[in-house]
Design a protein that fits this description.
581 residues; eight-stranded mixed sheet; 19 helices; binds flavin-adenine dinucleotide
Length: 581
């Protein structure tokens, strides 16, 4: 029998990230994955600011950034009739509008970027393996049984067809949108699979002359009459600027799947680009379905599911891979804390309490974003007729010098601007606030959203929120509060007058066996608030304390430094699920 502490099934963003985190935290783990290698197509790609912060904490941010397309080349989301044809409008997105640039820069030390999944996964899994994960390719998970002490999984080596058991204390099901693990533990699912049909065509073509002057991740092409429903919207997505691309194009899921040979794929590429002679090399084609489904619970006993196994949705908002990595970040430190013996297993229940609401939120957001193309179609006059020539005439009518055309132009501007909820939803990416037994409230009400909750990030140290970023200095060099937090251990931040919290950290961490590092921020201290940013965002007095979990969410905060030992001890016991034990 092979033994490990945590068995991870699947090497997508969720599973590879979980293995990397567990190894980084010193937890024995094994990852099994069905195929002989990692993702072989670009798939998910937009990597948001929060995920980049997580990669930063894991010390792989530079590696990711070296392969990624930077934020400044992602922004000009274009709507057009073809790349060579008429442009219908543009919107500055992904934080590239001057006003949003400031929002992003103020929000965190890392910036979003584009990193196709086939480049991201080797970084995650390669580092996992080099830090200690045992990785078994060509190994398919078949079944599991769990008891009071652990989980026994049966796997099959796909080359030799040999079946064998692996015994683990915990199992992570990160086996994607058709998760066998989620089925086997009977996770309750809500929603629908197979809502619409989609195809990906990955191809090489030098499109610089059509795009380099309006650099973007996404070019939306509207060609009435060329697809189901008569609207004919396709997406040309940059994979590598500006020579590798992916087209996403719909098909009628109620009909037999379309034949997508190289000739058919090349014809689609040329039609959307608007160049009948374009030299094209098709790299791959695949069919997939748009799903609208999430699990209302992600855990049963010692088995936890994450990623697409528990949230299945279209690529809108670019949330798939990001949320998967964030799931792993939430669970991994908890597993480490329990396996190292300083947290009660009840801490693991908070994975469901904290992440299942996020699964629901992102599935709903991503599906809603598809519907929000409707006002663009409406403004262009594509919805009130199925006649293709009429549609084209309606689109052209917006050029006229008439009151109706002016109204139409305004409607189109508004409809395109509204797509910020898909392409610029910084709040969706950054505002996750947890409520669970691993968060100790301070009796204050949740701060109200001062700007739109989905579009804008709202920093707060309210327990459950992500620790706000502020640039501090250490030895004169800039360091983010998020660099001070993380690293698999708790961090306690206080200021001048809060020295009692430092004594409390020493006492509590020794008494409870919990790794906590304390920091006084202020003049003459190791960390200084030279830019006065921390004073602006901390929301506690200088002598107060903020206790930050290893995943950079605030676990507890307090004003003043009276009874610091008792208060910190109390909070820590509650966070770790040991308060009643
Ligand atoms: C063809 C395709 C195209 C996509 N295109 C896009 C896109 O354009 N944009 C976008 O944002 N998202 C896209 N996605 C979705 C995106 O890839 C997912 O949201 C993301 O990968 C989720 O990560 P995950 O780790 O949860 O699951 P996955 O990446 O699906 O990984 C699942 C892993 O589990 C393994 N596995 C499955 N069953 C077993 C088993 N029984 N035993 C062992 N291993 C198993 C798989 O081999 C794989 O390694 C696409 C997905 C697919 C499949």
């Amino acid at each position: 029998m092979i033994h490990t502490d945590v068995l991870v099934v699947g090497s997508g963003p969720a599973g590879s990230a979980a293995a990397l985190m567990l190894s980084t935290y010193g937890i024995a783990n094994m990852l099994v994955t069905k195929h002989r290698w990692l993702a072989d197509t670009p798939r998910a790609h937009f990597t948001n600011q929060r995920t980049m912060e997580i990669l930063r904490d894991l010390d792989v941010e530079d590696e990711a950034r070296a392969l990624a397309t930077p934020q400044e080349l992602l922004g000009d989301t274009v709507f057009c009739t073809s790349l060579a044809g008429e442009e219908l409008g543009r919107i500055q997105t992904w934080g590239t509008h001057p006003l949003r640039r400031a929002d992003h820069a103020l929000a965190g030390p890392s910036s979003c970027c584009d990193l196709p999944q086939n480049l991201l996964e080797p970084i995650l899994l390669g580092n996992a393996a080099s830090r200690g994960s045992h990785v078994r390719f060509d190994t398919e998970y078949l079944a599991l049984e769990q008891d009071a002490d652990g989980v026994t999984a049966t796997v099959q080596d796909r080359l030799s067809r040999t079946r064998y058991p692996i015994r683990a204390k915990y199992l992570i099901g990160a086996d994607g949108g058709r998760s066998q693990v989620a089925d086997d533990i009977g996770l309750p699912m809500t929603g629908r699979m197979g809502v619409a049909g989609s195809m990906n065509i990955v191809f090489d073509a030098d499109l610089s002359r059509h795009v380099a002057h309006r650099p973007s991740l996404l070019y939306w092409v509207l060609q009435p009459g060329s697809d189901i429903g008569g609207i004919g919207m396709g997406l040309i997505r940059m994979v590598r600027p500006w020579h590798q691309w992916m087209i996403v194009w719909g098909f009628d899921i109620d009909q037999p799947p379309p034949v997508l040979d190289d000739a058919a794929a090349t014809a689609i590429v040329r039609r959307l680009v608007g160049d009948a002679d374009l030299p094209v090399k098709i790299r791959s084609t695949s069919l997939w379905s748009v799903n609208d489904m999430y699990a209302t619970r992600n855990t049963v006993g010692r088995v936890f599911c994450m990623g697409d196994a528990v949230h299945r949705h279209p690529p809108s908002n670019g949330l798939g891979s990001n949320t998967s990595i964030q799931d792993a970040y939430n669970l991994s430190w908890k597993l480490a804390a329990v396996l190292k013996g300083f947290a009660d297993p009840r801490l693991l229940d908070t994975y469901d309490a904290e992440r299942s609401p996020i699964a629901r939120q992102i599935v709903m957001r991503a599906n809603q974003s598809i519907g929000e193309f409707g006002p663009i179609f409406e403004a262009l006059g594509l919805l009130d007729t199925t006649d293709v020539e009429r549609m084209q005439a309606n689109m052209a009518a917006r050029r006229n010098n008439t009151p109706d055309a002016a109204t139409q132009r305004q409607k189109l501007r508004d409809a395109i601007a509204f797509k910020s909820y898909e392409f610029d939803a910084h709040g969706v990416e950054m505002n996750q606030r947890y409520r669970s037994a691993a968060i100790v409230g301070d009796g204050t009400a949740e701060p109200a959203w001062q700007r739109d909750q989905e579009l804008y990030y709202h920093p707060t140290t309210w327990p459950g929120a992500r620790l706000p970023h502020a640039w501090l200095t250490r030895g004169g060099r800039r360091v983010s509060t998020l660099d001070v937090a993380g690293k698999g251990r708790f961090a306690m931040l206080t200021g001048i007058g809060g020295e009692a919290w430092m004594d409390a950290v020493r006492e509590v961490s020794e008494a409870l066996g919990v790794p906590v590092e304390g920091f006084v921020i202020g003049p003459g201290q190791v960390l200084e608030d030279a830019y006065a940013e921390w004073a602006r965002v901390r929301e506690i007095d200088e002598a107060g304390c903020i206790l930050v979990r290893p995943d950079a969410h605030v676990a507890y905060r307090a004003m003043g430094a009276e009874n610091a030992v008792e208060r910190l001890r109390d909070a820590m016991l509650r966070v770790l699920g040991r308060d009643a034990g």
